[in-house]
Each structure stands twice: as C-alpha cells, then as structure tokens.
User: What shape does this take?
Amino acid sequence: MATHTELGLSDHEYALILAGLGREPGPVELAMLSLMWSEHCAYKHSRRLLGRLPTDGPHVLVGPGENAGAVDVGGGLAVAFKVESHNHPSAVEPFQGAATGVGGILRDVFALGARPIALLDSLRFGEIADSARSRYLLERAVAGIGHYGNSIGVPTVGGEIYFEAEYEQNCLINVMAVGLAPHERLTSSAAVGVSNSLVLLGALTGRDGIGGASVLASAELSGGEDAKRPTVQIGDPFAEKKLLECCLELLDLGLLASLQDLGAAGLTSAASEMAAKGGVGIDIDVASVPLRETDMEPFEIMVSESQERMLCVVEPARVAAVLEVCERWEVLATPIGQVTEPAGGVGAFRVLRHGRVVGELPVSLLVDDCPRYDLAPEAPPRGLYPAPARRLDPSASAGETLLALLACANLASRAPVFTQYDPVVGSRTVRRPAEGDSAVLVLDNGAAIAVAIDGNGRRVAVNPRAGAAEAVYECAANLACAGAEPLGLTNCLNFGNPEKPHVAWQLAEAVDGLAGACETLGVPVVGGNVSLYNESPDGPILPTPVVGMVGLLPDPERAGRTGFLQAGDVIALAGRFHPSRDGSEIAKLHGLAPEGELPTKDLGGLAATHALIRDGVRSGVFHSAHDIAEGGIATALAECVLAGGVGAEVTLPDGLDPFGEDLGTAFIVSGPAAQLSGRDGLAVLGTVGRERLVIAGLLELDLSELTAAHVGSLAVALGEGVGPG
Amino acid sequence: MKFGILRFPGTCDERDAAGAVGRLDGVEAEILPHHDRDLRGVDAVIVPGGFSYGDYLRTGAIARFAPVMESVTEFAAAGGIVLGICNGFQILCEAGLLPGALLPNPSLRFLFRQVRLSVVDPECAFTNACPLTLSVPVKHTTGRYYSPDPVDVVFKYAPGENPNGSQDDIAGVRNAAGNVLGLMPHPEHAVDPLCGGSADGLTIFASIAAHLRASASTPATPAG
Amino acid sequence: MPRARVLIRPKAGILDPQGQAVERALPQLGFTGAANVHVGRLIELDVEDIAEVAGMCERLLANPLIEEYEVIELASASAGEPSA
Assistant: This one.
C-alpha cells in the first residue's frame, strides 16, 4: 500500500489524521483524505489570506463558499459567476485541458441554478514569437475552449491573452462563466434531510484524472497495467448540454433539495462538501455507481474526476420523478446513497461496497481539519525575473514604436482567436468582442450586464500589491466604458510555490492589493479560485491575479463602445493620469525586466473618474469610451481609431509620455463638441476624422498602416489552422 | 400562425429561433422535442442550429433518424414549409430532404463572421420579403456546401465573402418543389439591431409568414 | 459474433482538409517521403450478420455522397482483439 508521503501528505498532517481518527486510515480513507487535504481542495496556503477580501455588499445574494457567487440585478433576477483555473491539465493536453476547464466552470454556475449565458477566458502562454510549443498550446487551448463553449451553446463574449516567457512551461487557462437565474431557483449545495437520497447524474465513472491517488494504484498493480490509469480528462460538451438542460428542469420543477457539481476529487469532494455545509452525514455505496470500466477499486470510484457529472439530494418520494425527467433528457441518473443523521453533531462519511463499509471518516476531518498554513513571506532583494529580449531599438521613432506596440503579441488584434468562438448564441450579446471594452449582455428585465476579465502579471511582478490593485481598477474601468456600475468580483490567483518566501510575499501582497482596491471601489468578492505551484525549473510564473467583474447598466441601447464613431466629434482625456514605463509594454519591447515602481493612484480621483465615464456613457454624451491600458495613450488612441474605422488628430498635454502606463485611471472619450468642450474632468485633445492618426509633433500614420500592424502576430502564430482536428 | 422549432439533444439555437419568430405579428413559436412524432398542428417547421447529438459520427447524421424527423419528412412531402439553419441544414441534407452535403471548412476551424448574402431567388417562399442583400452571421466548422448535381440556389455569399470554400459561393439551397430550404448563415441571430448589428435575418421569417398567409387566402397553390 | 471494421474515407476528388493538413505537417517533422494523405474514420462493431454492415454504412455510418467505405471482417469478438 502507498504511504501518506507518496500521496502528498506531510508527516505532520498524517499525525493529525491519526489523532483525529484514533487509528490508521484504510486505503480508501487515505485516498480520500490525501485529496481533500491537498492544496487544490483545502486551500491550505491561501485560506487565511483570502479572509482579508471584502465579501459583503448590497447586491450580494451568494458569497464565497458555494459553487459560484451571485448578485442581484433587479426584477427578481440573479447573475451567478465565477472564474476558475485549469492550468496544469492544459499544460499536459491543451485541447482537453481547456475544454474541461470550460465544462467545469459551467457546472459550477448551473449547480447554483443559473443558466450559463456567457464565457470569458484569461489565457497566458510563453512567447509565441520564439516558442513553437507556446504556439501549439495557444492553438489547441483556443480550439478546446471553442469546442466546448460553442458546442454547449454558451457564447464566449470576451477575454484576454498575454504572452510572457515566464509562462513557457506553465500556461494559464482561466475561464469565467456567467449565469442567469430567477432568485427562487438559486440552489445551495448543502445536503439536507436525513434519509434523503443521493442521486448521481450524468456520465459514467471511469479512471479519468486519478492523479495523486494513482500512487495507490501503481502500488497494487504490476507495471504493465499502469496504462489503464489515464490522468487526462476528456470533455464531452454534448453530455454536459443534456446535463445542463436536465438539471435546470429538475430545479424548475422543485424536485431537488440540493445540487453540487463533481470537480476535483470527484465524489469525495462533492459529497463531503455537501455534508459539511448541511451538517449531516452521508453514505455512498460504490457498487451503485455506474462505471465505464468494470474492475474499478472503491478508492478509484471515490476520487475519479470523470467529467459531466452532478450530485443531488432528493426526497425519497421524488426520486421516481427525478429519474423520469432524466430519462427524457437521456441523462443517466442513479441513486447511490443517502443523507444520514449526524451522531453527536458529527456527520460521518461512509463508503460502502454492496452494503459493506470500506471506509468511514468524520466529515469534519475531511473538510475542516486540514491544517491551514501561515505563509513566510519575504520580499526578494531584487527582481525575480530576467530581462526579456530587446525587440525594439529605444531610438525608434514614435511612429515606429506605436506600430511595434500594435503588432506585439500582447496588443495585436485578437480576431484570429475570437472568430473561433460563437459570441451570439442566446441572443443577449449587445457588444461582441472588440466592439466594447466590456462584453454587454441584455437581460430579461430590460437592463443589461457588462462583464470583463483583467490581469497583468508583468505589472504585478513589478509590485504585487499595486499591480493586483491595478487589475481591479482596470476591470472596473472596462465596465465604466460600457456604462456599468460594478456589482461583484471574482478572482483567480495564479502563483508559484507558496512555500517559497518570495512567492509567499507576492501572494500576500497581491491579496492585500486586491482587498484594498475592492474596498476603494466598494466591490465585494463573491467567489474565486487559487492555483499555486505554477513553477518550472526556470522559476515561478509571473504572479498573476486575474479579476472578473460583473456590472449593471440600465439601458443596453446606451452601452458604450470602444471605437470613434463620427467625424467631427471631439476627443478628450479623462482621469488623473500619471503614466510611467516600469512594467510597461514599451519597457518589454526595449528589453527591460519587470522592475521598478508603478504609479501611485489618487484613489478618490479614480473613483470619481469612473463615475464620470459611466454617467457620460449612460447619458449618451460620450459616443465612445476606452480606458488607457497597455501601450499608453498613443496605443489607446490607435485602438479607438481601429475599432471605429475612422481617424483622429490630437495634441497630447505637454510632457505626457505617449507610451507610459497607469492602468485603470484614465480614458479616451469622444462625443459632440458642444457637450464635451468645457465639461468638468475632461481635457480636450483633438477631433475625430479622416483616415489617419495624427499625434501632433509625434507621429502621423494612415489607418491602413495601423491596421496592417495590428493584424499582427496572433494571425501569424495561428496561421491557417495547423493540424488535424 | 404557429412555427414549430425542433429540438434534438444538443440543439443550441432553438430559443434564438423561437425568439426571432416571436417578433413577427401573429406568429407564435412552439418547441417540438425530438422524441415526439406529433408536430402539434404547426404551419411551418424550423430545424435550428446547434450540435445535435454532439455532431458525433457526422453532422446531422444521427438527428435525421429521430422520431420527429419522420413527421417532418411527411410534412415536407405534403408541401409543408421547412427551414433548416446550419445544423438544421446539415440534418435536412442527411435526411435527403435537400440535395448535397456539408463538408468541413478548409481551415478545419470553427468560424464566426458577419457575412453579406445575395438573394439569388427573390420570389420564393423564404425570400419574398427579403432585400437583395442581407447581413447575417455564420458560425460553423462544417459549412462547405457540395453537390455533384445542379441545385436550386436561394442564397449565395456576396462576392469575396465566401467564408468556407462552398461550391459556387452557395449559402442556401431549396428543394425542387420550393418548400424546403437550408442555409448555413443564421438569420435568427440577425433580428434585432441591438444584438445582431442587423435585423435583416427577420425578413426570411417574415417571408415564410407572408407566403403562408398568401397560400391560406388562395386555394392550394404549390409552394415556391 | 463476428466483429466488423469499417473504414470510411473522403471520396476521391472531394477536398480533404485534414489530409492536406497532415500532408503539410509531415515534411516539417522531417518525413519528406509521404504523399496522397487522406484522413477518414474507423468504426468497429460486433454484428450478428456481417452482410448487414454495408446497409448500415449506406444509411448511417457513411454519407455515400461524399464518402466511400470498406467493410473488413475481423476475428470473432469472443476471440479477443486481433493482434494486427
């Protein structure tokens, strides 16, 4: 039998298990505990930090702890959302890793009772200009996301992609799903009602994703049989589409007492979390679980990560009705156990095989008793990351510099990616990718939500606290450009090994930065995910907190757009903008490491600027609004020109660095001269018109030159389709 | 007047199609599940887009044998109006209700793009209310139309806009009788300027309604 | 019960983008001696009557308009997988 250390438990943790259990755990129990006490399930290095994030807000309906968070959007409707990572599986098999990442986050959203209405992705790869592997990962991950999202009929409406050498060995695939539900359909995962049935819905259980616990398997099997133990999960969007429709109908009919998706650690995690939340015990008979392979061991059944499965609690009198609905949707449904009375206040998780107990653990030992570690953060004496290769001579002209920025992988047109996604299914999409700074989706109550996802590891590397805060500000800025007010936030914290003091410092600082920015803007965190140990022999990834936000706008007809609209409109700068070059895209092009300092924000002014943009868009005064992000004000102006297909002629304020960055603070807006000139908080820069971008004294470029540059590196990297399906 | 919208396991665009039809005065939509042979007295049938049966085996190959398709085949043989969109087009070709077949895009990739369509046959049951060009999105991986024999073309991609290598820029074809049409572009995603960038797609549904009203007022004219 | 293997290929003359993609990729890996690559599908099934498989192909497994098929009889299923 495998030892606890082979399963990833420390001696200290194993001693706690022995003390808690009063005996040696059996093989099924040890497999279950090793997964529930893993970083992935127990958040043992991050949970204490996450307590610093503000979670209360007037619109919050469901906060952290459930499958996803949810906010009230009026009219009796709730929007559920969450972002989650699927980094490690995607590095092994990018197509299936990304596809199952989409499938997993969708299940989180419909487990809450919400119909998924949108997907966004935040992706990180190595430098595609240098790395064939990174081009392959990009190509296959994008194909996998499209395969799952398109096939299940949920539109992919936005996202972001960055390319940095530090992600070469550890690509990041973060997916955010957004769902819509009437308040009364919001469903908890807490198991309730002693003697209620546990019904497993969906796919057959196979040996998918039996990762850490496969040590157990290999200890019991001769070498040649190891091939039977796949760890790559295969996604089946068709199965999940049926599961989704079936679950929503079951909830609409009021047949379920609770619902939970099966993700990491499969049945073990799903059932123990349900039992813990409900304060009950649970029995599961593994002999009842429908299997894809006949000879599976009980521990394999309990930890299998086969996709497209859900677990629900059903009153005994309603089981027949549940099975009938499932049959109509061609969804397999099997009673596999029941809710049990907690003895002395402690629920027991019993695993049986044909009625005989093969494992029994206190639910609290599985869910609550895993130790939470304090980090030992220590600021590194100097920068952790090497300087990138220089790609642009610092003596290049402003025009050459702008073209180089527009063409670089981080700023080039995303069209080669988002044309592989269906952005319109569901008929809610008011702003398609690249039309607005946020995606905008119309709701059944006549209002709309704006959704965006942001994060910039390069800037977090410069200063984790300020960089993480910037991600929040930039995401809120994108919402403001749509005319939306933020309601809630979800985040995914992608970092290296937290047991290393410098990574711990990055993580702790970043969480503090997130917390501070959320408080500044009054935006609560309603859920999220942590992905640690993103390391390779070359070192950790750039610290990458990714922030997803949902905001509300009253009138979708007035949703903001990025592009300049009308010749003759005045162009103005809004916000207290103090750009600098440390951690900027131009610094990267010049071959400078992500070091130095980020601009200090005027937080009162920042919130006021966001409000000014939001109000101007909502009132229709602004024909366009775009936040100034990577590449600085020159790049932002070019993006407004490219999105609108019409030129501009501007003069920048004296001394303003055209390529410096100060994310989330400032905006380019356009609108009628009569309404913009002299308006408080705006500095007029010039006018919209002709087919050229002219920045006085700096550059003059034809729209065609800008377009040719911007088509740029992604189209080249993705080519025409590289390989067989 | 009632339009039936088929729904197979894996269909995705049925709500969009029902919503599009519901924008027309005096027209309602009803979802018709795949396992039910009863067409519930509908006046026209729409086979919507999506990924019926996961597109497994071949697009449309399994859906064509669903019980509801037996009734649709009889409905079409009796002159009933049937519109197949994207996966619905693939299903109608597999079912033999339309000539030809849809093949994978040369890029082998899913492609979303707003395209301009030229109406080649402006007088038929599906186009009598259409302008001569329409702006409608395409979204598919398997949309390259192929037929070894001459076919009755109703929609072509406008010059230079063929997104998938379709033979002769064909975007939509009808049967010889003129009562069954399939097209790869998605008119149901171009019915509201707020969401579609164009409302041109609505004219296809409006054409069907106008055709049905005209045939109801004049006795038994063959469709087309 | 006999086991049948059905090989399905794009018909000659029909553009086969998967085959072309593979044909383009092979030389990049140093395999310069491959030509006429075609990618199809493989379906295996146990059947009571091998003679019925052609009908299955005509109606469901293949689309005769664009695909051709070939039915191969394998050793019976009870004898296990063929070694080939």
In short: Chain B has five helices and eleven strands. Chain B has one domain: 2-217. The domain at 2-217 of chain B is CATH 3.40.50.880 (Rossmann fold).
